[in-house]
């Protein structure tokens, strides 16, 4: 089981770039890495998914080194509305990919 | 339509009641999920349906009974719950099991008295 480890919390200021790293030392060959954002009393929202190297979409970038034992979610120029819990999930489509880790509480300060 | 709709948004029930949570999606997704989330904890996977068949049951107590009447609907029947079952129940769907993005509903907030 590819267990994930993330920082419990992070603080940032508006306009800064935020990088949240997830460790997944036991990642398997078929595993993908997926990140979700969750606001209080709402369902999680998909941010980005990747397998290797770098993936970028309109809201974030995902950096995955060659050994794939970690990944970094990069949020450019955060705003107060980016204050949320961010979850990293690792898996291959079985129950593992559907299991959330403890998540990182990101607080963006004015 | 990229929504997963859950009803009711809030539910209060006694330990002897029988109630149901409902979830609906019209995205043509063939996998649907139930998660349970306690305050300040991550969502915990309960059940997964793939092509209307139960594919994953994460050792959930039998007082929770899932049902998938068709590919668009997912129910969670509740009976003889305990106060510790109070939580936010989240429904999600995806194109296939574990395939790409999970689309979540807003959740049903359940309180068991």
Describe the structure using short key phrases.
heterodimer; A: 110 residues; mainly beta; five-stranded mixed β-sheet; four-stranded antiparallel β-sheet; B: 113 residues; seven-stranded mixed β-sheet; 11 strands; 0% helix; 57% strand; globular
Question: Topology of this protein?
Answer:
The complex is a heterodimer of chains A (110) and B (113).
Chain A: E1 9-13, E2 18-23, E3 32-38, E4 45-50, E5 53-56, E6 61-64, E7 70-75, E8 84-91, E9 104-109
Parallel strand pairs in A: 1-9
Antiparallel strand pairs in A: 2-7, 3-4, 3-8, 5-6, 6-7, 8-9
Chain B: E1 4-7, E2 10-13, E3 18-25, E4 31-37, E5 44-50, E6 53-57, E7 64-70, E8 73-79, E9 87-94, E10 103-104, E11 108-112
Parallel strand pairs in B: 2-11
Antiparallel strand pairs in B: 1-3, 3-8, 4-5, 4-9, 5-6, 7-8, 9-10, 9-11
Oligomeric grouping of the chains: heterodimer
Q: How is the biggest beta sheet of chain A arranged?
A: 5 strands, mixed
Number of helices of chain B: 0
Percentage of β-strand residues of chain A: over 45%
User: Tell me, what's the shape of chain B?
Assistant: globular
Q: Supply Rg of chain B.
A: 13 Å
């Amino acid at each position: 089981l590819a267990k994930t480890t993330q920082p419990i919390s992070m603080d940032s200021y508006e306009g800064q770039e935020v990088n949240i790293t997830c460790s997944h030392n036991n990642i398997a060959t078929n595993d993908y890495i997926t990140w979700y954002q969750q606001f209080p009393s709402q369902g999680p929202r998909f941010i980005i998914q990747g397998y290797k190297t770098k993936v970028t979409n309109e809201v974030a970038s995902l950096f995955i080194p060659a050994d794939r034992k970690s990944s970094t979610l990069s949020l450019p120029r955060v705003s107060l509305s980016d204050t949320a819990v961010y979850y990293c999930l690792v898996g291959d489509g079985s129950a593992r990919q559907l299991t959330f880790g403890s998540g990182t509480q990101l607080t963006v300060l004015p | 339509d990229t929504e997963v709709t859950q009803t009711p948004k809030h539910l209060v029930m006694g330990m002897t009641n029988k109630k149901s949570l409902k979830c609906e999606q019209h995205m043509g997704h063939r996998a649907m999920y139930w998660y349970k989330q306690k305050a300040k904890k991550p969502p915990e996977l309960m059940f997964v349906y793939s092509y209307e068949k139960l594919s994953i049951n994460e050792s959930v107590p039998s007082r929770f009974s899932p049902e998938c009447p068709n590919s668009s609907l997912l129910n969670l029947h509740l009976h003889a719950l305990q106060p510790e079952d109070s939580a936010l129940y989240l429904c999600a769907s995806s194109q296939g099991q574990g395939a790409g993005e999970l689309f979540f509903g807003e959740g049903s907030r359940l309180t068991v008295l």
